[in-house]
Amino acid sequence: MAHDEIIDHYSALARAAAAGRVVADCGPDAFEDGCFGAAGYDDTSALPEGAVRAGLGCGNPVAVAELRPGETVLDLGSGGGIDVLLSARRVGPDGKVYGLDASPDMLALARHNAEQAGVSNVEFLRGGIERVPLPDRSVDAVISNCLINLSDDKAAVLAEAFRVLRPGGRFGVSDVVVNHESNPSRRVVAERRIGCVAGALPIEEYRQVLARVGFAGIRITLTADHGDGVHSAIVHAVKPEIGPGLEIRPMREADAAQVLTIYQAGLDTGQASFETTAPSWEGFTTGRLPHLRYVAADTQTGEVVGWVAASAVSARQVYAGVVEHSIYVHPGCQAHGIGHALLSAFIAACEDAGVWTIQSGIFPENSASLALHQALGFRIVGTRERIGQHHGVWRDVLFIERRSPSAENDSSGAGDRVQDPTP
Ligand SMILES: C[S@@+](CC[C@H](N)C(=O)[O-])C[C@H]1O[C@@H](n2cnc3c(N)ncnc32)[C@H](O)[C@@H]1O
Predict the structure, then answer these.
(1) Could you tell me if the CB of 6 is within 6 A of ligand 1?
(2) DSSP letter at 200?
(3) Is the C-beta atom of 182 inside 6 A of ligand 1?
(4) Which domains does the chain have, with CATH numbers?
(5) Which of 20, 369, 386, 390 sits a CA distance of 20 to 30 A from 124?
(6) For residue 177, what are the CA distances in angstroms to 46, 121, 224, 289, 330?
(7) What SS3 state is found at 337?
(8) Which of 36-50, 178-192, 357-371 has the weakest average pLDDT?
(9) Is 8 exposed, middle or buried (0-12, 13-18, 19+ CB in 10 A)?
(10) Any atom of ligand 1 within 6 Å of the Cβ of 157
(11) How far apart are CA 23 and CA 73, in angstroms?
């Protein structure tokens, strides 16, 4: 369905709900079988009947977003407002909840329901979830109930969620996903049955898009099986935090000059690398993995204060989960925890991307970098003695690596993928 058709469809449901009709309300057994509605909630007693009657979700995101008093929350595709009203209760009078929806009829219904509930700490905004009408870093949690699957630009929706979240903010949504068992023709049948599945993402693709826009700590938990590979799911992710006034986000083309300046400043210390001159931007990006490049930046000025990036160590399949990284913090901003935060976010992104080993080389004299890496689980594999000359002087390099704990516990094992006996 095209965007306008989707909105018309929900507008018609909103008008039906406003006229007192039940638009989706099934008992808990039917809910388990795939009928969507307010039956997934266990705490609707204090809500106006009209809000419960208009519930069209596929789960209970309020229960998973761990909302706290005083927080600001955004509900993407707020419909009749059921999750906005439940969230408003959780964040209390010092908090605020925004509901965003593209259907004017749904917004009218939601405002009426909020009035009935006597709730004042809510605001309903008209707009598409692909372009959220809120400033950067203005909310603590983004929730959503059975909507992201409907969007034809999910990357834009997830990038917008990342943009409006404060560093440390949480993304906790109910959504519909498909697994590898799903095939397009069977999906259409499932779609007709539950009415809420158009364009659901495969689980792995959902994870990749979240990681690409900058999220870390990604967890996708299946909550109900609707058959034919279609599932309701709870999706959790976090915007990496660094400290007041700073954020970690994916590196962009526009960061090029600042990233290379910091690179050159690091090389000028003589302790970062055998290189003496930073490459061109083209040289920098060639070979560095696009989904594993992050910057730490000032949230007010946009000034980049550090970066981390990784390259694949080999094109061979057996080493597909092994990367080599570099991390540079502006010399004027060191010892403020920026390196620690950047490296932590990078490690989390590597875990999400299925990387099993991160490796690098460090000059033994660079004790700050060594301490940082050891604090975050890297070990020294060995010393490569007098491995190269730097300004005409032979130097040693410590070879370090971090093995992913989740790969350690993976019984399927990378070994199964090893076909070539040559290391
Ligand atoms: C499945 S309903 C879910 C409503 C609500 N979250 C609930 O649980 O009852 C989807 C809602 O998202 C709105 N919607 C659909 N596509 C949208 C988009 N691209 N941008 C904003 N709202 C959208 C619809 O108008 C509808 O109210």
Answers:
(1) yes
(2) P
(3) no
(4) 3-239 (3.40.50.150), 242-417 (3.40.630.30)
(5) 20
(6) 31, 32, 10, 27, 41
(7) coil
(8) 36-50
(9) middle
(10) no
(11) 26
Amino acid in position 289: L
Residues near 305 by beta carbon (within 8 Å), at least 6 away in sequence: 246, 262, 296, 297, 298, 329, 330, 333, 338
The finding on whether 113 has its CB within 6 A of some atom of ligand 1 is no
Q: Residues 6 or more apart from 205 whose CB is under 8 A from it?
A: none
CB of 124 sitting under 6 A from ligand 1: no
Give me the residue label for tokens 């404060």: 166
Map residue 225 onto helix, strand or coil. Answer: strand
Q: For residue 370, what are the contacts with CB-CB under 8 A and spacing of at least 6?
A: 362, 364, 380, 398, 400
Tokens of 420: 């070539």
Q: CA gyration radius for the chain?
A: 24
Residues pairing with 74 in the sheet:
98, 142
| CB count in 10 Å sphere of residue 414 | 17
Which helix (H) or strand (E) segment holds residue 360: the answer is strand 357-362
Q: Is 7 helix (H, G, I), strand (E, B) or coil?
A: helix
**Per-residue confidence at 419, pLDDT binned at 50, 70, 90?**
very low
Strand-by-strand arrangement of the 322-329 sheet: 241-243, 246-250, 288-298, 304-312, 322-329, 357-362, 393-403, 379-390
Residue bearing the CA closest to ligand 1, atom 8: 57
Lowest mean pLDDT among 107-111, 215-219, 301-305, 399-403: 215-219
Q: What amino acid occupies position 365?
A: E
Counting atoms of ligand 1 from 1, which one is nearest the CA of 127?
A: 21
CA distance 355 to 107: 44
